[in-house]
Structure formats: structure tokens, C-alpha cells
Design goal:
Largest sheet: 5 strands, antiparallel
Helix content: 25-40%
Radius of gyration: 34 Å
CATH class of the largest domain: Mainly Beta
Oligomer: single chain
Number of helices: 7
CATH topology of the largest domain: OB fold (Dihydrolipoamide Acetyltransferase, E2P)
Order of helices and strands: HEEEHEEHEEEEEHEEEEEHHH
Distance between the termini: 116 Å
CATH architecture of the largest domain: Beta Barrel
CATH superfamily of the largest domain: Nucleic acid-binding proteins
Strand order of the largest sheet: 3-2-1-4-5
Strand content: 25-35%
Number of strands: 15
Structural class: alpha+beta
Shape: elongated
């Protein structure tokens, strides 16, 4: 063997030994809160092992594989496929870290419901349980709660289990993991979109205050302010209205953003104060009066 061949052999031997020693001494830095990519390599009764490039594979407990109940890991994280994981527990004595997909999905779900709530849009909840205060259910993988007072159906709540309800958000608090919703507000918002300003509608007085009366328009309540009743000043609404009374009103404003509905009856009057003198006649001829005013405004 010539000197060049011997040197080449020695260099090769040194290089491989050095590489092996480097692998043994290499310190893989995996910190809690870090997101890593890994490939599913094996299952056991407690979860799955993930190759994340360290000296030891990471481990995903079954409960951390996804939001909700995990029945079969193979359907959630199949062997051979790569996923992103969040490190939720740093390396143990064997160099193994604990991983989670659930925690990542949980944060994403809170971001989603926060965005929906801020936009004012509605969403759906799958009812999964009942308690004395209302019902619970699944919203974007999160547990939400609807108080009984915010349900359309307030009795026999068990019959709602399994149903999908359209809801809007009352409270979204990721820090406290608190999610409170309302079916009633969602129905009101949906009904408001069907109401048009300037339309004549019939309703029932359901409440009276010194400043106005509240009129139920078939699931949506609007306010007939005291200043919108007549063209003249009214000292007491009790002289004209009572709870349970049927009235005709005109929708003067629809405020979808604040879920408010403003109503008016003074538009029916042919002269200020007529509604106080001839209430029944004004109500009976409300359609004709409104149509006549519309024709006059076009001339």
C-alpha cells in the first residue's frame, strides 16, 4: 500500500469516527411552546410516537391528537404522514418531548370564534348537553354555553341534544376559556335583515316605559318612542296604549349593527294629534294613509 492510499484510509476512518462522536454529543434544543414538524412512526395504547429529528422520538398522548374525542389515531394522524406539533412538555430523562396537535387547534379555534364574534356574524352550535342554566354544545371544536333565557325553546331542553342551532356570541374570552352564545339574538338579527325601512307592519305591545312602547313584530321587538307616536307632545302613553294591544306601525330605522328597530305612528296622521283623537280610525286606515302620502311625495 502506498503512502497516499494509507493517508486516504486514515482520513476516512477519522472522519467517520468524528461524525459518530458528534452525533452522540449533539444537544437537540426542544423548548416548551415550540412548534416542530414530525412524521408519525408508531402507535401504542397511550398515543403515538413522532420522529421530529431528535435523538428520541416525540410522543403525542391520544387526548392531545385532536380537538374532541379521538376514537382512532390512524384516522387523525396516519403513520408516515408529516404534521406540525406543539411541544407542551420538555425533554424527559430519555430526551423525549411531549407533543400536541390539540393545543394548536384549540388556539386556532379561539382565533376563529373571536373573528366571527367581532364581525357580528352568526354561527352554529351542535347541542351536546343540558344543565340547569341552559345548554352546552360544540362550536368550532370549542365548548359553548347558551343560557336558558337566550333560547327560543326554554322547556324540555333535552330534546335539543343533537340539534344544530344558529347563534351569535355574547362573550368570547380565550383567557378564561369562556364562550357564551345566544339563539335569541341570532333570530332577532336574522329577522332584522328581512325588515325594510318605510314598511308598514302589525305588532303587539309587550312592554311600556315612560319614553315609549315596545312592539313585538313576530319575534323581533321594536321601540315606538313617545316622540314618534304623534306630531304633538304626549304627556302619558297610558292614555293611548296598553300591553297586549294590537297596533300598526311604520319601520323608521333598522340598525342591524346594534340590533335595534325604531318605529313610528305619527306618519299616519293627517294633522298633528289626530292619533290621540281618532286612534281606531287611524289604525284601520293606516295602509291607505301611508299610500296617499307616498303618492303625494312623488308628485
Amino acid at each position: 500500500m502506498n503512502s497516499d492510499s494509507a493517508a486516504s484510509k486514515n482520513n476516512t476512518s477519522f472522519s467517520m469516527d468524528d461524525f459518530a462522536k458528534a452525533l452522540e454529543k449533539y444537544d437537540y434544543e426542544f423548548a416548551k411552546g415550540q412548534i416542530v414538524k414530525g412524521t408519525v412512526i408508531q402507535y401504542d395504547s397511550e398515543g403515538a410516537y413522532i420522529d421530529i429529528g431528535g435523538k428520541s422520538p416525540g410522543f403525542v398522548p391520544t387526548r392531545e391528537a385532536a380537538l374532541g374525542f379521538v376514537e382512532d389515531l390512524a384516522n387523525i394522524i396516519p403513520i408516515g404522514e408529516e404534521f406540525e406539533f406543539l411541544i407542551i412538555q420538555e425533554q424527559n430523562a430519555d430526551g423525549q418531548v411531549t407533543l400536541s396537535r390539540r393545543q394548536m387547534q384549540l388556539e386556532a379555534a379561539w382565533d376563529t370564534v373571536t373573528e366571527i364574534a367581532e364581525s357580528g356574524r352568526s354561527t352554529q352550535i351542535r347541542v351536546t348537553g343540558v344543565n340547569k342554566g341552559g345548554i352546552t354544545g360544540d362550536v368550532e371544536g370549542l365548548r359553548g354555553f347558551i343560557p336558558r333565557s337566550h333560547l327560543q325553546q326554554r322547556d324540555n331542553l333535552e330534546s335539543l341534544i343533537g340539534q344544530l342551532l344558529t347563534v351569535t356570541f355574547i362573550e368570547v374570552n380565550p383567557e378564561k376559556r369562556k364562550l357564551v352564545l345566544s339563539q335569541r339574538n341570532a333570530m332577532r338579527a336574522e329577522a332584522l335583515t328581512r325588515l325594510v325601512e318605510g314598511a308598514l307592519v302589525s305588532g303587539t305591545i309587550v312592554n311600556m316605559k315612560p319614553y315609549g312602547v315596545f312592539v313585538d313584530l313576530g319575534g323581533v321587538t321594536g321601540l315606538l318612542h313617545i316622540k314618534e307616536v304623534s306630531g304633538i307632545r304626549i304627556d302619558s302613553l297610558n292614555t293611548i296604549f296598553k300591553v297586549g294591544q294590537e297596533v300598526k306601525v311604520v319601520i323608521s330605522q333598522v340598525d342591524e349593527y346594534n340590533n335595534r328597530l325604531s318605529l313610528s305612528t305619527k306618519v299616519f296622521e293627517e294633522y298633528p294629534g289626530e292619533i290621540l283623537e281618532k286612534f281606531e280610525q287611524v289604525m284601520t286606515t293606516a295602509e291607505e294613509r301611508l299610500a296617499a302620502k307616498a303618492e303625494n311625495s312623488e308628485e
